[in-house]
Amino acid sequence: MTQRSHFPFDSAATTSGWYKRGSRGVRGYSGAIAKKRQLLLRERTEDCRLLNMETLKSARKDDSGEAGRDLSEQIKAATKENHIRAENTELMLSYQKGQITLPQYKVLLCSLYEIYKALEEELDRNSSHPAVAPIYFPQELSRLESLERDLEYFFGQDWKKRVIVPAATHRYEQRLRKIGKDNPELLVAHAYTRYLGDLSGGQVLGKITQKSLGLSSKEGLSFFSFPGVSSPNRFKQLYRSRMNSVELTKEEKAVVLEEAVAAFELNIQVFDDLQKMLSITTETDISKRSLAATRVPVSPILQFTIGLCVALATIGAGIYAL
């Protein structure tokens, strides 16, 4: 996976950690390495400046109660109704009630894998695009490897042969591929919707899943863990400030907002399709069990008698044919 050299502000690259590693100064290093360190320091300084600006803007917004002109605030306002609908799908309600089942979680992992595979491959391919570069954090946010570990835990080493997803997941994947090829700036809407949603609810949903499934360890729950992000709230602030720094025309911003609404709709369709798929599977299993329960038990003696009769009839037919 292509990895853009971001300087994470809240994990291994905290101020104290950075200066500790660089305490020897630039003396003894080549000019190229010294220059790179200076560039990284400037990038981190800019990140901190943007973070402070984002914090001030959030405070002003809270005081006024009005959404500002920032892209992140506009997306939040535009998708508010869709967000509520997504939370009220049967699959998400099961989560909220702490009643997620193993079949639900396994099919959800399968769909998330296909979605993130498409999203992250398109982000990688467009990492230098002016709209994508500011919000490209593969080291901090990448979910693909985590999902692969979880799928292997539940399905075994041949998990790729056992991944089954509904039609809605394929539509979501195809949409990501299309905009990655034709309109990379629209990836901003999907990355924001998915990653910040996962960061916001990851810890809570991870605990609910572990308790509901009776898992004794964190195995199978890698998707909910972001080891490169020590403070989700602060990272989300940085992410929003980076996204707000993307230069878009008024028309382009309007299209991004429409795509954010479409992203929520695609997620809702996936949740609904997964639940339908599980319902069909459950009904089929119940039908099979009912059929097995209504079968008349046959004693071993009767089985032997029927088998003997069939054998004699076959032999008789053979003799007659001769």
Automatic annotation (TrEMBL):
Subcellular location: Endoplasmic reticulum
Chief place of localization: endoplasmic reticulum
Membrane-traversing stretches: 301-321
SUPFAM superfamilies: Heme oxygenase-like
Entry keyword annotation includes Heme: yes
Family: Belongs to the heme oxygenase family.
Enzyme class: oxidoreductase
PANTHER family per UniProt: HEME OXYGENASE, HEME OXYGENASE 1
EC number, UniProt record: 1.14.14.18
Record keyword Iron present: yes
InterPro entries membership: Haem_Oase, Haem_Oase-like, Haem_Oase-like_multi-hlx, Haem_oxygenase_CS
UniProt keyword annotations, A-Z: Endoplasmic reticulum, Heme, Iron, Membrane, Metal-binding, Oxidoreductase, Transmembrane, Transmembrane helix
Protein name: heme oxygenase (biliverdin-producing)
